[in-house]
Amino acid sequence: MLLVRMNFLQLLSRKPERLEMIFQLRCCKKQFPYMCLATSACLYSKKKKVNGYEQVDQEKYKSLVYSVTSYKASAQTPETILEEDGLLYGQPLKHAPPNEAETNTPKNWVPLINPNKRAPLLDSDSSLPMKIALQKTKIPSVTRILQQTIPPQQAFYLERWKQKMILELGKDGFAEYTKNLFLQGELFHAALESMFLPEDLATKEQGEDTAISGYLTSVQHVLKDISEVKVLESAVQHETLQYLGLVDCVAKYRGQLCVIDWKTSEKLKPSLKSTFDNPLQVAAYVGAINHDANYDFQVSCGLIVVAYKNGCPAHPHFMDPDLCSQYWNKWLLRLEEYMDKTDPN
């Protein structure tokens, strides 16, 4: 019965004039049927037009709804996209200024690997690492060249750190602090040297210093991967480019012959970038060894080991041949900059 009535109402709803006529006739005879008819029609229409979004907190999402409903989509072309990007981000630079440190080619380019040096037919039987004393000379050192050509941004941060430390410790306190840092570095290097030398030549008392115990603990996992030490605390000089330096170590790290540079730090340096100019220093030493007649071998890799005072595991940063070549080119640019600054003409 209910289904029949609903179908009847649907037919009537399609022709409102008939519904109005029946409505008037029924209303004149009896009021009750009229009320039933009106109520049924009202309920039916409400069920048909139920909108679930009316239950949503409209005030809460008012701004979101407005932004969506007021947006008029339009077909986009590359020209319109470019125009919108120009309004949002500004016009692109058609000719961006190149980064000289990365794109320039050194005027006096010298290869990292010496093509004129030949490896010996037989490996040296000496079990002692090479150790050549650094002589006083007018030839600039790698450290001096990097200090004189430090980038402005790096110099700014270094000076800000210095002023902050002076504010906390005072000038005398800061001088004492830096003095202790250099002393700890020397003791750390001496202790490592003792580890790589035969027992009869090692300086045992160096390894017992409590000031460097944390650093030594820090590098233990790295030392397990080092073998065949060839050089320890030895002077190197690039015979063509005329600069010199003191190499910490040359040995194999996981089977690759590397120039190894030991660094101490109180702060974590988990990335190569966080070591600042150290990669340039290593690349400079690699090139110097390859162009120094005192060494009958060549190196193409580098390793920077950052040891920590609190004893947490050191970070070893390995530099493969490609990475060494990249930093070698950057080093040549810094060397040219230094030569230009110090050239009296």
UniProtKB/TrEMBL annotation:
Function: Metal-dependent single-stranded DNA (ssDNA) exonuclease involved in mitochondrial genome maintenance. Has preference for 5'-3' exonuclease activity. Necessary for maintenance of proper 7S DNA levels. Probably involved in mitochondrial DNA (mtDNA) repair.
Keyword Nuclease (UniProt): yes
UniProt-listed InterPro entries: PDDEXK-like_dom_sf, PDDEXK_AddAB-type
GO molecular function ontology, one term from the record: single-stranded DNA 5'-3' DNA exonuclease activity
The protein's name: Mitochondrial genome maintenance exonuclease 1
Keywords: DNA damage, DNA repair, Exonuclease, Hydrolase, Mitochondrion, Nuclease
Residues annotated as the enzyme's active site: D248, D261, K263
Main location as per UniProt: mitochondrion
EC numbers: 3.1.-.-
Family as reported in the entry's similarity comment: Belongs to the MGME1 family.
Superkingdom of the organism of origin: Eukaryota
Subcellular location: Mitochondrion
Lineage, uppermost ranks: Eukaryota, Metazoa, Chordata, Craniata, Vertebrata
GO BP field: mitochondrial DNA repair; mitochondrial DNA replication
CC annotations in GO: mitochondrion
Pfam families noted in UniProt: PDDEXK_1
Occurrences of domain PD-(D/E)XK endonuclease-like (ranges): 185-296
Keyword hit for Transmembrane: no
